[in-house]
Amino acid sequence: MRFRHPDGSTVHLAYCTNVHPAETLDGVLAQLRDHCEPVRRRLGRDRLGIGLWLARDAAHTLVTDPSALRGLRTELEHRGLEVVTLNGFPYEGFGAEEVKYRVYQPDWADPERLAHTTDLARVLAQLLPDDVTEGSISTLPLAWRTAYDQERATAAHTALTTLAERLDALHELTGRSLRIGLEPEPGCTVETTRDALAPLTAIGHDRIGICVDTCHLATSFEDPHTALDALAQARVPIVKSQLSAALHAEHPHFPEVRAALAAFDEPRFLHQTRTLTAAGLRGTDDLGEALTGDALPDTSPWRAHFHVPLHAAPAAPLTSTLPVLRAALARLVGGPHPLTHHLEVETYTWQALPPELRPRARAQLVDGIAAELTLARDLLTDLGLKELP
């Protein structure tokens, strides 16, 4: 979906396909047929943006087989879909029964991460629509915080510098300008936007910036205006923003609130949980840890890294951090000029929701994704953007 900003520039809105697990190119093609095109039709649009997630095997197939890449581009056009952004965070296995810490491997100190992201960039350069010259890729924020020492930090810095040079060369070769955004996430070396300032300033290349995920922003209790102003002041480019909402519990000391939270404690993904105290931010790596014993103070609200559907906040006594998303979006695209032109709805947890909230059929998932995009569209038009055909 495309929108015209009052300054005349185009803002792209997509939804991320990591909600549909697929490790191979055949699986990706099935996603387009079974999910992405039906979402487009449900919205009544001739064109729908998708943020592709390409696992290692699918990306490798596309970068080594030109006919396969041409075939994917043809399939996208046939189904009324367009790609200006990729999700390069998960490397593989995102649809496994247990993902947890595995999603942070390989990290930016490992050669495999540079090789995979280079592949993604080469693929994206060929998938961009003919009238689009700028693309974006989100990636993990350097590494999970443990086992990340100075040696690995130096290796990661070198890898990102090498990537920037490769993106420069790709621009010269194809005329397509691609940028990579580190995506701050609780528990990682770069947990907050503030944590991103030092490494990104040290790299000092405009092709390496930040991806602002509004669920992660909220989970870490960052104020959107303060965070985005700091990025602007440091001249860190906001490559893209993922529109998502976290789980919020206002009174975690109440037994009924604990019981409601426990329903979201599931085995597939990590749900880092945070609370803001007078002494600063406190947290656990997973929701289950927070609910067990006194690992996390419960005198202040808790937020958990659980991407809940944008249009459907959890039932009381829980809610979502949609207000943080609204505030961030107003700052991102509500001013005289957009801070980013790439927006991506990223609710990958539909099948991890409590059983009674999960879509029971493909059509229900299509309805849910379409409802999220409708909400995002309405937020954008309320900010003065005009939806384009």
In words, what does this structure look like?
This protein has 389 residues and is an alpha/beta fold. Strands 2-3-4-5-6-7-8-14 form an 8-stranded parallel barrel, surrounded by 7 helices. Strands 11-10-12-9-13 form a 5-stranded antiparallel sheet. Helix 1 packs across helix 12 and helix 2 crosses helix 3. It starts with a strand and ends with a strand. The mean pLDDT is 97.
Tally of DSSP helical segments: 12
| Strand content bin | 15-25%
Question: N-to-C terminal Cα separation, in Å?
Answer: 8 Å
Please write the string of helix (H) and strand (E) elements. Answer: EEHEHHEHEHEHEHHEEHEEHEEHEHE
Mean pLDDT: 97
Based on DSSP secondary structure assignment, what is the total number of beta strands? Answer: 15
Instruction: Report the principal-axis shape.
Output: globular
Q: What integer value in Å does the Rg equal?
A: 20 Å
In which range does the helix fraction lie? 40-55%
The largest sheet is: 8 strands, parallel, barrel
Order the strands across the largest sheet as they lie in space.
Answer: 2-3-4-5-6-7-8-14
Class inferred from helices and paired strands: alpha/beta
Task: Give the low-pLDDT segments.
Answer: none
Summarize the structure.
The chain has 12 helices and 15 strands. The protein has helices at residues 25-43, 56-64, 66-78, 111-127, 150-174, 193-203, 214-219, 224-233, 255-262, 287-291, 322-333, 362-382; strands at residues 2-4, 10-16, 48-53, 81-87, 134-139, 177-182, 208-213, 238-243, 245-249, 273-277, 280-284, 302-308, 318-320, 342-345, 386-387.
